[in-house]
């Protein structure tokens, strides 16, 4: 138990610390790398409470894919950090307000601020079912039965976002020569070359 | 004597820590020897394909060549370019090497021979194998040089693209197994060698292997380090042991993906014929033989195939593998559901 407590405080401290470094650090590449560290430690925290499926998905999706693309973009941008920091104080009130709103939402959801704590009770009901099943199976059971419609709606939202991204970035340039693999594969030897018997000193036209 | 040692190792917390350490060493040391000899076998196979002899000077048949190479890399000077970001420059090869090693914690070598028999083993393997790209990206960026940077950008895009299809391959396999535990995956394939998943899921096996080539940056997908255009790609600026760690990590990753292929598609430690003389052979030997077979194909492709063009690589990943693997997931799920073969646990 003691070992778990130590592990929790270490992971939590590193998560918060690297989260702060994401905002503070001057080089945007360092920011992304600290973000990755924060993701990692969050995954470790999930592991500590026995949510191994969520921990692994966090690493696969956020560290393995999303953060790679962040890094990809940030490395290619030529960002002048000093210029961005100029507007720091202007945005501070809005940022603080959003942060406060998110914190209030979490506290309200947990029932600390006198809410009904409905989410917690349904969540713990799923948790009691999970005791007999393993983690992954329990999530699947809840996601595909109780929250099936919400899950599908979430998928649709992502689909719309994806189509939107493609529509925004797609541009058709006229006159671009493209490779058509099927055409290349269906080309036969007969259609491509002709063998000609060339008479000496005669030549072919 | 034996009983006191075994009780000490299993009950005392210090004993348990020592036991875990010993288990880790029992996996890591043979793995590093395998990596060393993989470089030797690789070179021998290419040499045979190109009608050469390959390394044959150091030791009998050149068998000590990997150690000579290792010694050379250790003794040379590590040069850090003056304009490089030295912290990231040194961390990058370490990340590549460490991620290639930690993934082995969940690989089952035999029935019950696994360091961590966790429920989400397959996801762990997938998560760790997707981390190897960070070493390459960070190394390329920290070098502060054109060619490494281009190499690392290529690598980032390439590995993210092919991870998607590997993910779908994994989903198909676990639909057939009904568990994310790697030992369960192997046990689900018990029986004759045509019961292993390579035959029922043959297209997925092919997709998995090609994606594994892309994930490990091997020919025909070695664009991140294509020597004709990018000198040596992401590790152009690296020298001595920092280069050595990249090199070792690359080979360890190849062995890891071969092990993953052996577990997912070739029945892990199972013998191909489930009858007497074959089942006497220990499971770990079958497992190693299967890994060796896949590794030979890695070398074979390197010796045979030309390099892909970058747009062709992206086309293959996104326009061919992604739709095919997605379709195969739906097909497998439908066949399992309507054929009444959904695995029950």
Structure overview:
The complex is a heterodimer of chains A (205) and B (345). Helix content of chain A is 74%, strand content 0%. Chain A is an all-alpha fold. Among the domains of chain A are: 1-86, Four Helix Bundle (Hemerythrin (Met), subunit A) (Up-down Bundle); 128-164. Chain A is elongated. With 345 residues, chain B is mainly α. Chain B is built from 14 helices and no strands. In chain B, helix 4 (86-102) runs antiparallel to helix 6 and helix 4 packs parallel to helix 11. The longest helix of chain B has 37 residues, at 13-49. Chain B is globular. Chain B starts with a helix and ends in a 7-residue tail after the last helix. At the A-B interface, helix 2 and helix 3 of A face helix 5, helix 6, helix 7 and helix 14 of B.
Give descriptors for this structure.
heterodimer, A: 205 residues, mainly alpha, Four Helix Bundle (Hemerythrin (Met), subunit A), 10 helices, elongated, B: 345 residues
Give a short summary of the structure.
With 205 residues, chain A is mostly helical. Chain A contains ten helices and no strands. Helix content of chain A is 74%, strand content 0%.
């Amino acid at each position: 138990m003691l070992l778990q407590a130590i592990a929790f405080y270490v992971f939590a401290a590193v998560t918060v610390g690297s989260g702060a470094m994401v905002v503070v650090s001057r080089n945007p590449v360092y920011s992304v790398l600290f973000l990755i560290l924060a993701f990692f430690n969050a995954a470790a925290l999930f592991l500590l409470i026995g949510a191994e499926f969520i921990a692994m998905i966090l690493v696969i999706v956020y560290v393995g894919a999303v953060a790679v693309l962040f890094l990809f973009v940030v490395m290619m941008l030529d960002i002048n950090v000093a210029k961005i920091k100029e507007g720091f104080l202007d945005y501070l009130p809005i940022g603080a307000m959003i942060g406060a709103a998110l914190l209030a939402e979490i506290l309200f959801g947990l029932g600390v601020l006198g809410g009904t704590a409905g989410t917690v009770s349904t969540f713990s009901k799923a948790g009691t079912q999970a005791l007999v099943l393993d983690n992954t199976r329990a999530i699947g059971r809840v996601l595909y039965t109780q929250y099936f419609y919400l899950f599908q709606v979430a998928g649709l939202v992502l689909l719309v976002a994806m189509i939107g991204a493609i529509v925004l970035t797609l541009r058709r340039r006229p006159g671009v020569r493209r490779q058509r693999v099927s055409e290349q594969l269906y080309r036969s030897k007969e259609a491509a070359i002709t063998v000609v018997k060339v008479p000496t000193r005669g030549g072919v036209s | 004597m034996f009983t006191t040692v075994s009780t000490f190792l299993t009950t005392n917390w210090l004993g348990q820590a020592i036991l875990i350490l010993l288990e880790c060493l029992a996996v890591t040391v043979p793995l590093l020897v395998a990596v060393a000899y993989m470089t030797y076998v690789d070179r021998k196979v290419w040499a045979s394909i190109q009608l050469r002899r390959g390394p044959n000077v150091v030791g009998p048949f050149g068998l000590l060549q990997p150690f000579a190479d290792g010694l050379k890399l250790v003794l040379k000077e590590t040069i850090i370019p003056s304009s490089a970001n030295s912290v990231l420059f040194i961390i990058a090869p370490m990340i590549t090497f460490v991620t290639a090693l930690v993934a082995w914690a969940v690989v089952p070598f035999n029935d019950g021979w696994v360091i961590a028999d966790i429920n989400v083993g397959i996801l762990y393997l997938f998560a760790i194998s997707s981390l190897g790209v960070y070493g390459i990206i960070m190394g390329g960026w920290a070098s502060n040089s054109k060619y490494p940077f281009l190499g690392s950008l290529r690598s980032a895009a390439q590995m993210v693209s092919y991870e998607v299809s590997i993910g779908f391959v994994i989903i198909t396999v676990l639909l057939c197994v009904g568990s994310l535990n790697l030992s369960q995956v192997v046990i689900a394939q018990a029986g004759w060698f045509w019961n292993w998943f390579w035959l029922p899921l043959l297209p997925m096996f092919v997709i998995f292997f090609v994606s594994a080539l892309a994930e490990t940056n091997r020919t025909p997908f070695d664009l991140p380090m294509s020597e004709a255009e990018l000198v040596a790609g992401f590790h152009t600026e690296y020298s001595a042991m920092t280069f050595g760690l990249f090199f070792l990590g690359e080979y360890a990753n190849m062995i890891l993906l071969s092990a993953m292929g052996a577990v997912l598609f070739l029945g892990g430690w199972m013998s191909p014929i489930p009858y007497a003389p074959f089942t006497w052979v220990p499971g770990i030997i079958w497992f190693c033989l299967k890994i060796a077979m896949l590794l030979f194909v890695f070398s074979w492709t390197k010796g045979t195939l030309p390099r892909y063009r970058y747009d062709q690589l992206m086309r293959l990943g996104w326009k061919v593998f992604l739709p095919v693997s997605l379709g195969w997931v739906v097909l497998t799920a439908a066949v399992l559901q309507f054929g009444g073969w959904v695995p029950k646990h």
